[in-house]
Amino acid sequence: MTLALFDLDNTLIGGDSDNLWGEFLVEQKLVDPDTYGAQNEAFYEDYKRGELDVYAYLAFVASALNDIAPERRSGLREQFFHEKINPIMLPKAQALIEKHRAEGHTLMVITATSSFITAPIVEALGIDLLLAPELEVLDGHFTGAVVGTPTFQEGKVTRLNEWLQESGESMAGAFFYSDSHNDIPLLAKVARPVAVDPDEKLRAYAEEHNIEIMSLR
Questions:
Q1: Which domain holds residue 150?
Q2: Residue 81, CA atoms < 13 Å, CB-side half-sphere
Q3: CATH code: domain of residue 190
Q4: Among 56-70, 146-160, 171-185, which stretch is predicted with the lowest mean pLDDT?
Q5: Is 128 among the residues known to form the active site?
Q6: % helix, strand, coil for the chain, step of 5
Q7: Ramachandran bin of 186, using left for φ above 0, alpha for ψ from -120 to 50, beta for the remaining angles
Q8: How far, in Å, CA of 46 to CA of 113, rounded?
Q9: Cα separation of 176 and 75, whole Å?
Q10: Residue 7 a catalytic site member
């Protein structure tokens, strides 16, 4: 089966769900707007520069979740999807997904954003397979640790290789769609890399390496 791999944020959706989740928590007055809001933006700038400490960021995400009563989390996540994600769903992205589905390809989203945030989005896109950072939970409490390797930069290659070994699938002829230079390690591994509405660093890399560039906007 040919793999069709997709990044999520700014690739299949027209924004960054991680950053939007932080803004949503500020708007809902569930976190301190000054300290949390500033830290959320600082992490996002680190990400865009390719300098994100992914473990520190995921601990930051987990800490905010612990400040929300467990019985409220699912409702808030549903509200977040309808208010912040639904408006940035991209019809061209859905059409691309359906094209690969019609061709019998195995569809997977592989993202650096935690599964807590991304699982409902990926489900709405009609994709069953998701590789994302898994936040460790003990006795209903997010510890701040991550289960396994976070799917960020080289971590996407590591986690995908683990999945390939478990599933018996192959990378032969695989596609990977991404907007970010952080995904160059995986883009370099697939037969058919595609830069989608790429950032400046990825656009330069794509032009240098004759990689297809497309827009889903």
A1: 3-214
A2: 15
A3: 3.40.50.1000
A4: 56-70
A5: no
A6: 50, 20, 30
A7: alpha
A8: 14
A9: 32
A10: yes
- Residue 212: strand pairing partners: 194
Q: Return all residues near 97 (Cβ < 8 A) that are at least 6 apart.
A: 4, 6, 12, 107, 125, 126, 127
DSSP string across 98-161:
HHHHHTTPEEEEE-SS-HHHHHHHHHHTT--EEE--EEEEETTEEEEEEES--SSTHHHHHHHH
- 124 by Cβ neighbours in 10 Å (0-12 / 13-18 / 19+) ranks as middle
Give the pLDDT score at 182. Answer: 97
Give me the mean pLDDT over the 15-39 stretch: 92
Q: Express as a percent the part of the chain with pLDDT over 70.
A: 100
Instruction: Give the confidence band of 67 by pLDDT, cuts at 50, 70, 90.
Output: confident
The pLDDT value recorded for residue 185 is 98
Report pLDDT for 70: 86
Catalytic residue among 9, 16, 179, 183: 9
Q: With the CA atoms of 134, 138, 143 and 149 taken in that order, what torsion angle do they form, in degrees rounded to the nearest 10? A: -30
Number of domains the chain contains: 1
Q: What residues contact 27, with CB distance under 8 A and at least 6 apart?
A: none
